[in-house]
Specification:
Distance between the termini: 87 Å
Helix content: 40-55%
Number of helices: 23
CATH topology of the largest domain: Beta Polymerase, domain 2
Radius of gyration: 29 Å
CATH class of the largest domain: Alpha Beta
CATH architecture of the largest domain: 2-Layer Sandwich
Number of domains: 4
Length: about 450
């Protein structure tokens, strides 16, 4: 055990103050109490933690007796949420764990007074540091300080054992390496690659959560490149792994294959909105299946339509909400239409701008261009049209509806949407300026129907 003084700044945040009070209450009652995990790691890196956990020698029932409001949310694993100054703080009893038959949770939990036993069951050395807020000291039982200084991510103890206890740690290894910008030590990397197949046993929701944290983190491309390198991507997202090595036409994609192009989208993203990042990752997911060659040049006709359908299946498999599935798959389905916006009639581009999904789709288009030929002409054109659209009067309701068509003796059917769409385009173009003019146009249109 190594104890070091901390000379850095303590964050002056309500969260840190509440966690410090919780630790002080436990210590005043004669128990050991420390901050643990990511909060300590971030503190030592000069970052303000967004979450602070406390670990203690006090048993769950003792924790509950010391606080006016204590919620036994994870009491079976020695975890109590206490509320201090209105802020919830997770307090966990020191414990050792035995057996992980489901590759997720311990079969048996044994409470202990020994903080060393507690930290040695944790995942990575940089997450196994303890901090005493009263004494301003760091307690290192696992070599985490040296790894933190060297920028190395390694498991505590045998990596094969650590990944066998909780298979999700395989993905967490990649997530933390990408988030922190750390190198992974060779033994941990080798064990993660060898254990990747175990991720098939993990619930889809947990896989999705880790992938999304990588996608929305500071270095998403680094994370997904590591997933591919270690053979993890082909287990958790085989459709994305299939993009590797898929050749693209060099005149449009000088950057390389489909996977390289996709990683560039992730690397250039500034707005890490979850739906946008998933759309960026999956926007060309249909290319491997649609690749054809003409005169030695690869083509991907219809990849956006197939990609949208594939994305919807992938997202459903990962248990996404219907709203996110619709948003992401629509962005993928539409991502090629921006290539022809300079040829579109006013009615069409006005419809595109009015679509609630337009901001996300426009940003996806920008990333798609930056990640290949770099031409942003149509992106800039749409920005200009957005300003033009914003100056227009508030959009009115369509002049016509289905009842107007029925009144002319036409039975409801597919022809209705076609006629109404034509009428709306003419209204947006300014050719139909009133309901009366629209009804006159409709009568003439119906006369020419082949019913």
């Amino acid at each position: 055990m190594k104890i070091s003084s901390f000379s850095g700044d303590i964050p002056q945040t309500p969260l840190f103050a509440a966690a410090s009070k919780a630790a002080a209450v436990l210590r005043a009652a004669g128990h050991k109490a420390y901050f643990v995990g990511g909060a300590v790691r971030d503190l030592l890196l000069g970052r303000t933690p967004d979450d602070v956990d406390v670990t203690t020698s006090a048993r769950p029932e003792q924790i509950q007796s010391l606080f006016d409001k204590a919620i036994p949310i994870g009491a079976a694993f020695g975890i109590i949420t206490v509320v201090v100054d209105g802020i919830p703080i997770e307090v966990a009893t020191f414990r050792a764990e035995r057996g992980y038959s489901d590759g997720r949770r311990p079969d048996h939990v044994v409470y202990t007074d020994d903080e060393v036993l507690d930290v040695t069951r944790r995942d990575f050395t940089v997450n196994g540091l303890l901090f005493d807020p009263a004494e301003r000291t760091v307690v290192d039982c696992v070599g985490g300080l040296d790894d933190l200084r060297a920028g190395i991510l390694r498991t505590i103890g045998d990596p094969v054992v650590r990944f066998g206890e909780d298979h999700l740690r395989i993905l967490r290894l990649v997530r933390f390496a990408a988030k922190l910008g750390f190198e992974v030590d060779p033994a941990s990397k080798e064990a993660a690659a060898a254990s990747a197949e175990k991720l098939r046993l993990i619930a889809a929701e947990r896989i999705r959560a880790e992938l999304e944290k990588i996608l929305t983190g500071p270095r998403p491309a680094d994370g997904f490149e590591m997933l591919a390198e270690l053979g993890i991507l082909k287990v958790v997202l085989p459709e994305a792994d299939a993009m590797r090595g898929v050749e693209q036409p060099k005149q449009y994609h000088p950057e390389g294959d489909v996977f390289v192009h996709t990683m560039l989208l992730l690397r250039h993203a500034a707005w890490h909105n979850p739906d946008l990042m998933w759309a960026a990752l999956l926007h060309d997911i249909g290319k491997p299946a649609t690749q054809t060659f003409k005169d030695g040049v690869p083509h991907f006709y219809g990849h956006e339509a197939l990609g949208a359908d594939m994305a919807a299946e992938i997202l459903a498999r990962l248990r996404f909400s219907s709203a996110s599935i619709n948003t992401i798959s629509a962005a993928i389905r539409h991502h090629m239409r921006f290539a022809s916006v300079h040829l579109m009639k006013k009615a069409k581009w006005m419809r595109i701008i009015a679509d609630p999904n337009f901001p996300l789709e426009l940003e996806l288009h920008r990333l798609d261009c930056i990640a290949c030929h770099g031409l942003l002409d149509n992106y800039v054109l749409m920005l200009d049209r957005m300003r033009e659209y914003a100056r227009l009067p508030a959009p009115r309701k369509p002049f016509l509806n289905g009842n107007d068509i029925i009144a002319l003796g036409v039975r409801p059917g597919a022809v209705f949407s076609r006629i109404l769409s034509e009428a709306e385009d003419l209204r947006l173009e300014g050719e139909l300026k009133s309901r009366e003019q629209s009804l006159e146009w409709l009568r003439a249109r119906v006369e020419h129907l082949d019913l």
